[in-house]
Amino acid sequence: MKTILSLTVNGHARDDVVPDNMLLVDYLREKVGLTGTKIGCDGGECGACTVLIDGRPRHACLTLAATCGGTDIETVDGLSKDGRLTAIQRGFNEKLGSQCGFCTPGMIMASEALLRRNANPDEDAIRQALAANICRCTGYVKIIEAVQFAAKELAGGELATGELSQ
Q1: What pTM does this model have?
Q2: What is d(CA 79, CA 104) in angstroms, rounded to the nearest whole number?
Q3: Shared domain check, 74 and 7
Q4: Distance of CA 14 to the CA centre of its chain
Q5: Residue 64 has what pLDDT?
Q6: Hey, which residues does 17 pair with through a beta bridge?
Q7: Which spans in 95-130 are helix H?
Q8: Which of 59, 74, 82, 90 is geometrically suited to a Cys-Cys bond with 52, CB 3.0 to 4.6 A?
Q9: Domain at 125, CATH number
Q10: Which of 54-63, 146-155, 156-165 is predicted with the least confidence, judged by mean pLDDT?
């Protein structure tokens, strides 16, 4: 069976015919051509495929595309505007929040969702928001510093209590 899928992806309205069993990660990569969303474990364990659906982080490898009709999907591919990186993207760059980079798109999207809900998260809030995302290269310190950098930038220079960065 197939479904006509009408949704918004990174601010652009789309109508596509998709198989009922197509995963959102496959829809984004194959139909839409957005390859920033990564396929890691293919079972919802690693978070590399994290996207925002109506502003909330979700694993695209566990979500059927056909269930996303009428939603607003945001991927890492659509975060920067006019070539300008967002605060969280700059944080990952400035604080060396990625090593191999495979987990980075999912980490960035989970962090983006956090900063939209809580512009001044402490370290515990950051750890909790990133708990569904696994990085095999780091001890998470640089990733947490990246989120704190972004929060500080968004707040105009103020960091939350319990900061790691100096």
Answers
A1: 0.92
A2: 13
A3: yes
A4: 20
A5: 98
A6: 4
A7: 104-117, 123-129
A8: 74
A9: 1.10.150.120
A10: 156-165
